[in-house]
Amino acid sequence: MANEKIILTGDRPTGRLHIGHYVGSLRRRVELQNSGLYNKIFIFIADAQALTDNMENPEKVRQNVIEVALDYLACGLDPTKSTIFIQSQIPELCELSFYYMDLVTVSRLQRNPTVKTEIQMRNFEASIPVGFFTYPISQAADITAFKATTVPVGEDQEPMIEQAREIVRRFNYIYGETLVEPEILLPDNAACLRLPGTDGKAKMSKSLGNCIYLSDTAEEVEKKIRGMYTDPDHLRVQDPGKVEGNPVFTYLDAFSRPEHFSLYLPEYPNLDELKAHYMRGGLGDVKVKRFLNAIMQEMLEPIRNRRKEFEQDIPGIYDMLKKGCETAREAAAATLDDVRKAMKINYFDDAELIAEQVKRFKG
Ligand code: ATP
Ligand code: MG
């Protein structure tokens, strides 16, 4: 149906989900799901993509599929409203990727900034797996297979969506209007675009071990916050401190709301005043971290509790995923059908082609 609004997004099962995923994409997905404004919502666990840089550790990927599914449900994704599925169960995606590969050059992939940083992060250098190098193409297949119009993701995904849009334009130019160009939907709060790690590194990432997980216990969360990187020059309470590049303040930008002040830190009317005091000097890290901890605990407790409930019915979750895969596969197969028709490789259903050839060989 034309003008449908369709969401597609997902996560790699390389670990449990963390608060960066939550603010970067997950929280938004749940809001969009419940807004009723979208005709279809597809959320997938990208196990095949995770293998592109974890080929020696397939068991890690396999184990984390259920962890990601539990995190989804705990955060409020609802399988009656959103189709939740596993990427590897949709073989149509491979076929689409195969055709899209012809529409992208090696130098275009080499210029992709996300791939560049990820290659560095993973120390791949000269030994980049082909599958990893080409994952932007398979990601374009993931998006376009579901005719997604809207892709809610963190900022690191921007070059991926751009690559998908280019593939769509090129495909449609060659074969006629078939695929839908997706739009990225970034978090509207700047701190959420790319949440830094607890170590102050640019991105909280499962692969870097600098994460606060949605399923961490209250004690783990508290310990991680206590040990967080702050301004290294803020040695004594009276010293002036920096809030820029200080992840404790970035987390407050991402998670604090005005009512948190009256609840947990009534001496300050708002975040600006708290920051101003820190910058002037006279405000210790411990106090700010305690405030952050109170906010994080309030947010994470219900998620953790819901997760525990879902953990009681693991077979039920695999069953939900299986149904999701069936629904997703139908949608992807319909798109693949359109693609094959557009490419005119549906030889045996194409009566016109056969008639044409008959004429050619008679003449
Ligand atoms: P990996 O290290 O295996 O790549 P990851 O932590 O980067 O894992 P992904 O599964 O690659 O997680 O990303 C899933 C989604 O979460 C994407 O939309 C991505 O933009 C978003 N995301 C991941 N990390 C952050 C972050 N630190 N801040 C904001 N969004 C994030
Ligand atoms: Mg990633």
What does this structure look like?
This protein is mainly α and 363 residues long. It has two domains: 6-194 and 313-358, Rossmann fold; 206-310, Tyrosyl-Transfer RNA Synthetase. Helix content is 55%, strand content 6%. The protein is built from 16 helices and five strands. It has helices spanning 19-35, 47-51, 58-75, 92-100, 106-110, 113-121, 130-133, 135-145, 158-175, 218-226, 247-255, 258-264, 271-280, 285-311, 314-343, 351-362, and strands at residues 6-11, 40-45, 83-86, 150-152, 183-185. The strands form two sheets. The chain has a three-stranded parallel β-sheet. Strands 4-5 form a two-stranded parallel ribbon. Helix 9 links the parallel strand 4 (150-152) and strand 5 (183-185). It is elongated, with a radius of gyration of 23 Å. The two termini are 42 Å apart. 38% of the residues are buried. The model has no long low-confidence stretch (mean pLDDT 95). Bound molecules: adenosine-5'-triphosphate (ATP) and magnesium ion. Adenosine-5'-triphosphate binds at residues 11-12, 14, 20-21, 24-25, 153-154, 156-157, 194-195, 203-207.
SSE diagram, text form:
Elements (H helix, E strand, L loop, with lengths): L5 E6 L7 H17 L4 E6 L1 H5 L6 H18 L7 E4 L5 H9 L5 H5 L2 H9 L8 H4 L1 H11 L4 E3 L5 H18 L7 E3 L32 H9 L20 H9 L2 H7 L6 H10 L4 H27 L2 H30 L7 H12 L1
Parallel strand pairs: 1-2, 2-3, 4-5
Quick take:
The chain has 363 residues and is mainly alpha-helical. It has 16 helices and five strands.
